[in-house]
Specification:
This protein is mostly beta strands. The strands form 4 sheets. It has a 5-stranded mixed beta sheet with strand order 5-6-8-10-12, with no helix packed on it. A 4-stranded parallel beta sheet has the order 7-9-11-13, with no helix packed on it. A two-stranded parallel sheet has the order 1-3. It is globular, with a radius of gyration of 15 Å.
């Protein structure tokens, strides 16, 4: 699937609706800014990634090739939410074919103050340090995970 046409009646794109549609690159019809997007809806839609490997739609960061491109990953300012699995690093052969892939993915994640919500299970076992603003709302078990060091600034 390369293009999706959203009808005017569409209100929500559900959980994992387009996950792994790696050839999807364009939307038509109703503007996506007018649609509520649930977590994981565009995870691993590789052709939606920007030049830095991020998949960001409606200010939500989805699981994207960026997590394999940098050992230390700094999320762009303006992102307000992370989708679940946004930083999971379960490198498989497909992911390792990406240009400049870092085996085991990013270990340090820097989130800007614009991030207000981190969804459940945004981070995988390879992430060791997460730097977040004190105002960021963490949903789920991130702060209870003793393997990840959370630095609030």
């Amino acid at each position: 699937m390369r293009c999706v046409v959203f009808p005017d009646s569409l209100r929500t794109i559900g959980l994992e609706a387009f996950v792994d549609c790696d050839r999807l690159y364009r939307f038509e019809g109703k503007p996506i800014e007018q649609i509520k997007i649930e977590s994981g809806a565009f995870d691993n839609c590789m052709d939606l990634a920007d030049e830095n490997g991020f998949i960001i739609i409606n200010d939500i960061l989805f699981c994207s090739p960026a997590k394999y491109m940098y050992e230390e990953l700094s999320v762009p300012d303006g992102v307000t939410e992370t989708s679940f699995r946004a930083f999971w690093s379960e490198a498989d052969e497909y992911d390792m074919r990406l240009p400049g892939a870092v085996r085991n993915g990013c270990r340090i994640v820097n989130l800007p103050p614009s991030v207000k919500t981190i969804r459940l299970d945004s981070f995988g076992e390879n992430t060791k340090i997460v730097n977040i603003a004190s105002s960021t709302n963490v949903i789920g078990c991130v702060e209870d995970n003793t393997k990840i060091k959370i630095n609030r600034y």
